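Long-time lurker. I teach an intro course on protein structure, and each term I like to show students one example going from raw sequence to a predicted 3D structure in token notation. This year I'd like something fresh instead of my usual example. Would anyone be willing to generate the tokens for the chain below so I can use it in lecture? Attribution to the forum is fine with me.
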Amino acid sequence: MLSPIMKALWGYRGFILGNVKREFQSKYRNSLLGAAWTVLNPLAMIIVYTVIFSQLMRARLPGTTSSFAYSIYLCAGSLTWGLFAEVVGRGQNVFLDNANLLKKISFPRLCLPATIVCNSLLNFGIIFGLFTVFLIGSGNFPGVVFIALVPVIFVLILFAIGLGITIGVLNVFFRDVGQFFAIFLQFWFWLTPIVYPVDVLPPRVHPLIKYNPMTGIVTSCQAILVKGQWPDWPSLLPAAILAVFFLAFGMRLFRRHSGEMVDEL
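-- Reply from a regular --
Happy to contribute to a lecture. Here you go:
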């Protein structure tokens, strides 16, 4: 199943990269600073988190001695969640937002989700690149365990795009799905240990929060970047299993209803 899909996407790689380029350029068109905003926005976030939490509030992360530990913890969780939320959030509207394109041009429809992933990874790469510079400059770079972020982010992308395609197809036929999921995503954020460590929660909640598939992904990134530790690989299993499920289910849903989708748009 994946081989024909990958072959089709590779054949239309120029179309995908063209869309990525156009979207990136249109995002900053008519602005005085242009693409500089891709650097200024994440830089402002890093500075605010660092100054507010480590300097003004003197926030400390339990079990750590670095004054920047909580700021790094917060950035690690926020950036990881931001990538997930961007892929899923844009995925749920990808077919609706490109209705005119789908009706006028014949191309593999999965080029649209692929464009979202590429754009999201581009934005994430710029932001995370600045964050990495901050880690190095502040003497908090985790070392060789940094490479463990690659498989963690890979699992995140698979989970996000599988969920995004599934919701995106359902949203074409049932518009309430997108509205509901946007609200659900806000609750999901606070049910994930992004701004708080799991240790501060009551012990009886610990087993429950592990069922949240984003918990393993976020805490893995935080362990790598804050403590310089290899992630707890089994904690990624819920997200990996759901990634396979939603990719298979989403693709089946897409193939079965791709013809009807154009009529509904």
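Some talking points for your students: Residues 35-264 form one domain. The mean pLDDT is 83.
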